[in-house]
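Can't attach files on this board, so I'm pasting raw text. These are the components:
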Amino acid sequence: MSTLRFLHAADLHLDSPFEGLPAGKAAVRRSEQRALLGRIVELVEREKLQLVLLSGDLLDSDNTYFETGEELVRSLQKLRVPVFIAPGNHDYYSDSSPYARLRMPPNVHVFTTPEITFAELPELGARVYGAAFTDKRCRPLLTDFRTARSPGVWNLLCLHGEVGARDSVYNPIRVEELAESGMDYAALGHVHKASGLLKAGPVWYSWPGCPEGRGFDETGEKTVSIVELSESGCTLTPVSIAARRYEILRVNVTGTEPLLAVHTQITDETVRDVYRIILTGEVEAPPDLDRLRRNLSEFFFELQLRDETRLQQSVWERAGEDTLRGLFLMKLRARYDAAATEQERAQIEQAARWGLAAIDNREEVVRHDDP
Amino acid sequence: MMIHKLTASFGKLENETLSLHEGLNIIHAPNESGKSTWCAFIRAMLYGVDSSARARSGYLPDKLRYAPWSGAPMEGSMDLTADRCDITITRRTRSKSAPMREFSATYTGSAVKVEGMTASNAGELLTGVSRDVFNRSAFIEQGTVAVTGSPELEKRISAIVSTGDEQTSYSEADERLRAWQRRRRYNRRGLLPELEGRMDESRRLLEEMTGSVQNVAQMKERLEAARLECARLEQAVTDSRRRQRREAMERLNACRQDVQEASERHDAALEELSLRREELSRSSFGGRRGDDVQSEVDTDLDELEILGVESRKKASPLFAVLLFVLAVAAAALYTAFQSWVYVILAAVFGAAAVVFLLRFSKRRRAALEAGEQRRKLLKKYGAQTPDEIRGRLAAYLVQLDAAAAALDAERSSREHYEASRGRLAAQEEAALADLDFSGGNSEAARLGRELASARAAAENLSAQIASLTGRLSAMGDPLVLSSDLSCMSEAHDQIQAEYDAISLAVDTLREADAEIQSRFSPELGRVAAGYMAEVTGGRYADVLINRDFTARTRTQDETVAHESEYLSAGTLDLLYLAVRLAVCELALPEGEPCPLIIDDALVNLDETRQAQAIELLRRIAKTRQVILFSCRRI
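---
Top answer:
Structure tokens for the assembled complex are below.
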């Protein structure tokens, strides 16, 4: 069998909002997101890939703005290789979905039914199987599906769904089903964290995760996969095409100056990234987030500061004093000890900070981002 | 501290002196004799005169109110004992804008300065309390017996009842917290409502945008359909016009062809006619009518018949010749026989021969003439024989017929030609109508109108899309907007959390304060109640003091305490005097008792109560100097 090299990407979620970015920065990200499609095209050309498998959730919703759809079509048009799209739960196929409304270029094949169908690619010696979500939720699509391997033909599967999550409403896929499917490689999508190359019986499979983070639940390096199938097996190379990353950094400021503590932990490479820095540790007085923000914001594309420091134990120690402060702390402490949730305790600590700041005639303990 | 002697150039006091002693000093003086001025002077000596205070309606600051009437500079001195030292304080005015600014404190009778005592701290050093607390405790001005709250006094009292943290005032801390809280939300103002407003606006915009985006998408679909329809109609119009034009032109050309053919036929008929006519005119009959020719020819033929017969009549000279021969024979016989018979015979024969010869010649001439006439007649027709003439006539008649037929043909062809010309004109008119695609009712015109309306619909859609798209782009990028919205929502959560934390702090602080208050109020109340019982002879034995230092009291028989509004002016004065004294007892430092300065606080009391109050003051004066100014003799 000839060697087959192709791109496997999923979960682009074009048109989904960006977390933590005010209007101006969101506009920048917006244009970058469109550029993401361009970078996919570049990658395919540069690496001379023979095929593109897009395993769903390319678009964030069926209310996709026309321009995004057009952009997608324009980009797909530039690809001179066959492209397969298996719509997922966010961009499920329907008569009114963008896939139905947009005129897809001839090199693009969109799976439109929940039944698994296939397309022959004789020039590549491959056959691409796939199916589409036709609603937000989807029954298991791979149940009882199996196909025979034909000599000299790679069997590929392009599908959106969740592996090993039995109760999932997003096309739960059992590993055994994959193993018996008769595929050589299953290009999956749905989970936003990359799986790496996995194997179920003789079947290689993986999901690439989302190619670019859109919020603090998608931190770290995000990639698309270049997959190579050959007689000797399967290799998967994750390639980063993301313009920016989301990162969460926890900085312990106990006994140190917060600004120095942060600088100690960041690198020079953060200027394109969206960071959430969470200050932790025990402090007597809350850190001055405004000052930190003023001094740090230039080092990041966007910076969120979160103060999760705890009141220094010694502050509570004054709870016994027979003064207004002492009584105030004592009462809060009683509430604190009775609090059922961490959230409640956090709120009580904050109340203590506010109260102490007021009693000591200190500055306001501003913690919020500037809206 | 105890005051011995005051010397004042202050208000109406012109370098006047007042000597005081330990215990209760009652300075009796009528109204307008300067009692309040002395009180104010004592305070001014202790705490100075505020030079920054400004006059306002109903209030004159001390610097103006007590400017010496004489015009002399405001100044004075005070001899006192504090901490077992005799001290003389003087305050003088150098600049009018800073009355009594120049300060000195020396040990009495010497020039040795009291270390550390300055214009601004003298009062606090000597009394142990700030001006604010002094005003609310030991300094009881006329008409202001009731104690008013101040953070400073509050701190002192809470410090007294708790373990002594004078930095913390509940109302200050509470006010700060509330200010922070108000910054976040105060009715419809503050960060939160503002943010909520912006978020609502963003949501509304997003909703509108989503609606518009869907509208635009739908309209684009409709536009696409309309354009396809336009294209279809354009093709149909083109086809239909082409067909209609072709058909019209075909009909027109057929007509033209008809006309052409008719014209050609007519031309041919004309030619034929002229040919026939020429033929006729060329004929010997010269184009004459057939009947005429016929009758003439018939006459001529008859004549020719006759002439033929005549010319064919034979006149033979044979008989004459025979007679002549006979005559000659007779003559010869005569010669031979000389018989007169012969002569007679020769003569008769000769004569007969001559007669016969004449007859022959005549006949012959007649025949020749007939022949000549016949020839002439034949020559008229150019014929050789009558049959030929007959043939000619027959031919001529045929020619005549032919000419007549040609004439008929010409006429009919002309008529046909004209008819076809008429038809062509009609057809041209019809074609003009058919080729007028702007109006009319032809399929092409109808389709054309459909196309125009389809184009108008498409253009209309296009304009609507442009306008909506314009509005959309003016509204901004929905993705940007929703990102911003999520940002705002996050900030909102944070601020809300701050607000909640502040609220919790406010509540908890109030609880803490209530606890302190629950301790200091009873204490203050207890002391005040003691004083109250003392001045009312035990009638009022209970005093309840609120946070703001307002007080209630009840008699021994009553179960419910009277709010201050319900009390008589005298009882109220007493109540507040009791509270004042209690405040003094609790708020003023014990070590170096600060003198009580009371300006006419007992005017509302009846004699009994006044006596009881004086008794109380006398008892208090055992521990601290009491300076009571009164307009009534007590």
